[in-house]
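Can you give me the bound-state structure? Components:
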Amino acid sequence: MGDAAPAINVSHLRMGYGERVLLDDASFDVQRSEIMVILGGSGCGKSSLMKNIIGLYKPMAGDIRIAGKSIVDTTAREKALLQRSLGVMYQSGALFGSLNVLENVRFPLDQFTTLPLDERNLTARMLLHQVEMAYAEALMPGELSGGMLKRAGIARAMALGCDILLLDEPSAGLDPITAANLDRTILTLRQSLGFTFVVVTHELQSIFTIADRAIMLDPVSRSIIAEGKPAELRDRSADRRVRQFFNREPDKGTQTSGG
Amino acid sequence: MPAAGNAASIVLDGRITAYTAGPVWHSALDTLAKNADRPVVVDASRLKYIDDVGIAFLFDLVRQQRPKGANVELRDLDPRFAALVAAFDPKDFAQPAKARRHVGMFEHMGRASEKVLDYVEKMVSFSEECATAARSALRIGAFRWGEVLDIATEAGANAVPIVLLIGFLMGVIIAFEIGLVAQQFGAVIFVVNGVGVAMLRELGPLMTAIVFAGRTGAAFAAQIGTQKVNEEVNAITTFGLSPVQFLVLPRLIAAMLVVPLLAVLADIVGIFGGALVMEGFGIGFVQFYHQLLGAVGAGDFVIGLVKAAVYGLAIAAIGCQRGLATGAGATSVGLSTTSAVVTSIVWIVVIDGIFTVFTS
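Here's the bound-state model for the whole set.
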């Protein structure tokens, strides 16, 4: 228990919707201060896996532990406390539409701290600085682009001092510079504050830049088909699909003539 | 068609597209069927262009299962087109296309009843959640009064004009309708009793509730539904907050406070409208006033208010529940909104019936 336990431990997880199983008997750990990437083709359950980890969906079987404590088999109160220790950035940013950017980032502080407004504002503005969003503090979510929503979402996820951050497709749809900045932000946070990251992403460049380790989900076998360092998986994986994914190769078969 | 050796032949010419493929496809399959045990040569040398239907046509010719020695040979097809046809494997298309599953009557009924039961169960557990949230909010004094005030302003103050208009018209209309009938019996003075009781006990709260369901019940479902679709509800949950306590409770409280207030306004302008009409029937304001005091009691007024509060609670609860039950995508927000209004109006009538049974 305590510090010895991995940040996140998933054991024998079975999950899905209704009768449709997306993942069966999946087990993996995320160590502290590790950046772990969840990969897989569209519709294989990456986002669902994340929602199981943060306790929004209930697994069909198996257990998920956050810093040694189960988020599956627990009371509503304990679960709420565990959830508060996780910072989550949703695919769409999920900012509250009725609050401006600064108020969104300040929201968790408003709810759970007794800090005076000035202090809360300062903290929120510094968080926005960290994700290079300071200039947008007064804008409403409806006025932001996709990339800005995501960055504000990350700032809000960090507001309660959570040291485990889960990011759902942080760099999808971002321009290369913003995406690279985001990767740098993630690396900096890990290096200086020892944050643990679980990142769901497709972006190969981002994966090679930030990931210590990756797991890859497969919708056909409904299991984790690869686990390891991205570069090693690319070069040495025994599974053709894994190498194909990392090398960005199309399926065999369809070929246009001309060659 | 000229045959080379003992082979039958099909000659393709020009462009085969969605618009021209029909007859060609038909006659080609015909030729294949007529020459079931002879090889068939498809001469595609003069083919200029094919689109997706053309590709499917050529693919259909070469994928035919035929006896040995009776193959279909595609000859001189432009390599650009050949690559398109070769990209598909006949094995992938061996199964006929799956039709949408037909649902029988019994399955249909079963699924419908399951849905109703499921809905009842959801509504019960939602009420339970609301009660739990209200209790814990009471205990720690964590009602979000600022939010309640905002919602009450939007749902209440901003609804005043329309409630006044509808309340006034209701008073005028019933006074006029009953007045015309009562006039024939020389009982015009008793129209005052009718207008008073009807407005206070029935029409004031009812019309207010229907306006509220259309205006605010729908808005609650749409607001919370959109927040659900945008994952804002998930975000609230992962902050360790309860969406019911955070989003639903303020709306329930605001609705319970605001609907009775609006109903009082509807009562007042309705009776005023009635008084105006009675003036035309020869009953002055003073006479109207004294007759009214004799006809209605505080009980009628209070029952109307209690009804209005219950309507408000029901409308807000249904709106919020529909909102939280929203699935994915913009369409489901629309469905939730519609369902919130329809369900609310049905429940308003049911609750009205229950009140009538127990208070008369």
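A couple of observations. Chain A touches chain B through 29 residues (CB under 8 Å). Chain A has nine helices and ten strands.
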